[in-house]
Every structure is written in C-alpha cells, then in structure tokens.
Write a structure and sequence with these properties.
The protein is an alpha+beta fold. The protein has four helices and 19 strands. The chain starts with 15 loop residues before the first helix and ends in a 6-residue tail after the last strand. It folds into two domains: 82 residues; 243 residues, Jelly Rolls (Sandwich). It is globular.
Length: 334
C-alpha cells in the first residue's frame, strides 16, 4: 500500500502565505514518505511471513518429492539389478595332468551392469587418470614394452616379473601407491550389491589397463597374492579373451595352443574363479581398437602392503535381497 502526494508549484511568484503553504506541503510530503516507509516495512514483514510459509511448503514438497525420488530410485536399482544378465556353465575340456578337466569352471560373464551414461563417466575418469599419469602425478603407472598396454595401479603395487634383487613377482609390500578412486569404490559396491561379486571377497585394489590398437596381454595365471574370485570390467570396445592350459607365446601378441575364445562386450564384467582362475591361463590377443579394462582384486591379508588400511566404505557391503536370473552359456566341448 502507498500514499501519493503530488506537489505542484505554479509559475506565480510566492508570497509569504504561499511560502507557508509550500512549507506545509513539504511537511505533509515528509509525513507521507515516513508513512510509506512504515507501510513498506510492514508489507515486507508480511511478505517475509508469506515467503516463510511458501518456503516451508516448498521444503515439504521437496522432501516429499525427494522421498518419492529415492523410493523410485531404489525401485529402479532393484529393477536394473534384476535385469543383469549372467552367463555361466561354460565348458571347455582339456587334459590336465592326465585328467580331462573343464578349464572354464568358475567362469561367469555379466552384462547390463553399467548403462551408457555410467560407462562414459568411468571412461572420462580413466582419461583423467591417464593424464595425471603422464604428468607424473600418480605413484604407480607404467607402459609395458613393445605392444603391451599402459597400466595404473591402485591399492597395492604389483610386480609382474622378477626385477632387481628384493623385488620378486607379487605384491611389493613396502611400495606405496595411490588409494582407490572414489568412483572405483562405487563400482565395487555396485558389483557386490548386484550379486556380481560375493560379499566375502570385496576387492581392495585394482589395475587400470589402457590398450591402444594392436596392444595385447600374454598368457598368464593371476598371482595368488590375490584371492579368488577377481573380475575385469571392459569399456570402449569389444575384444576377445583366450583361455587354455597350454597357451604359449610364439611371438609378440601371437599365441599357440588349444584355447577357448570368449568375446567381452562393452560394459561387461568377467568373473574368474575356480579352474578358470587357477588352471587355465588367459590372454588378450591384439585388440582391434582402443580399449580400457579395470581388473578388481582382493589381496591376501598376509600379502597386503605394510601401510595398508581397509577402506571404511568398502566394509560390510551386502547384496540386495533377490535372486539373480541366470542364462546358461552355449556349451563348448573340446
């Protein structure tokens, strides 16, 4: 509410009475301004009260919507988790120590664990880490000779081959590395909650492998400084992984021996346990295009670095309460 007082001064010369009348008008004008200020203050107070009420209503509505969002978000997580595809029951028989053995026992392949937006976020993070590695800002990053891939280690420093005296193959307990990035810990929690990895074997370290076209990894069995199962998540492009108990290196990225070839779809999680982790060797032939993989493992407690402290947010993770549907893989028998 406002009071308007217009002061009109004519062109005639002012006499004494006119001056007093003008003074009175000025006094009246000041009184009106003062009243307007009082009214404005009251109006502001009322408006603030209205705003407070509106803010309270908005806050209540926001809380309600947030509660609904969280509820539907949880529902969505359950729906997505239950739609994860699990392929297992792979069979590939080879003679090992005189006996026919299914060297693929314990192999599982999961798809639809990460959607396209999540994969992009992970890839962007890896590119960021790769740039930090180039600048020397990470403690453990290297590029293998020849056609080997680039690798960045988190959680522990692992030596792939016997080096200088005192550095055997395995976890180097006195070497420091960077901790697991928070995004990688989110990946771990997702895999445990969504029944991809068991809660008894929550990873506490990982290695990021970055392949350029033509890079490869030779046949090997993962070191037993790490518990079973362990897993590898694939990004950017599909490639094949080979399994065989008698795989041998003929030349760089060329391998011989009977083997089973398994395509690794983009965004898939490959879990290795049992025979496929302990009896069969595995390798990645030349990749056709750029590829990223992250291998997550849990260290044997007796092999952990001397400085290692378990990550608090990786403790006590429990799977969501549901049964995961599984689709059997096509059997391949040799």
């Amino acid at each position: 509410m406002r009071f308007d007082c217009a002061i009109v001064i004519g062109p005639e010369p002012m006499d004494k009475d006119s001056f007093f009348r003008l003074s009175e008008l000025y006094d009246l004008s000041h009184q009106v301004d003062s009243l307007n200020r009082q009214v404005d203050v009251n109006d502001i107070a009322l408006e603030n009260d209205d705003l407070n009420e509106e803010e309270e209503l908005c806050r209540e509505a926001f809380d309600t919507n947030l509660e609904k969002h969280n509820f539907f978000n949880e529902q969505n997580k359950y729906i997505r988790a239950m739609n994860v595809k699990r392929n297992r029951d792979y069979v590939y028989l080879e003679r090992v120590n005189g006996d026919m053995v299914n060297i693929l026992g314990g192999l599982e392949l999961y798809t639809q664990v990460f959607n396209a937006a999540e994969q992009k976020k992970i890839i962007d993070k890896v590119c960021e880490l790769q740039e930090k590695a180039r600048k020397g800002e990470l403690k453990r990053a290297f590029t293998a000779k020849g056609k080997g891939r680039s690798a960045i280690q988190f959680g522990c420093c692992f030596n792939y081959r016997t080096g200088k005296p005192g550095n055997p193959v395995g976890i180097l307990r006195h070497e420091t590395v960077d901790p697991l990035p928070s995004l990688f810990k989110m990946i771990i929690r997702r895999m445990v909650k969504w029944h991809v990895l068991p809660p008894t074997c929550v990873p506490d370290c990982c290695v990021v492998n970055i392949y350029d076209e033509g890079d490869c990894i030779p046949p090997h069995v993962d070191n037993h400084d790490f518990l079973r199962p362990f897993c590898t998540v694939s990004f950017l492009s599909e490639c094949n992984i080979l399994f065989g108990s008698n795989l041998k290196v003929e030349e760089t990225c060329v391998y011989s021996g009977d083997s089973y070839s398994l395509p690794l779809p983009v965004g898939s999680v490959l879990v290795l346990n049992g025979n496929v982790a302990n009896v069969a060797k595995h390798c990645v032939p030349e990749v056709p295009t750029k590829r990223i993989s992250i291998t997550f493992r849990k260290m044997d407690e007796s092999k952990r670095p001397v400085w290692f402290t378990p990550e608090p947010d990786l403790q006590g993770i429990q799977p969501l309460p549901y049964e995961l549907n599984s689709s059997a893989a096509s059997d391949h028998v040799s």
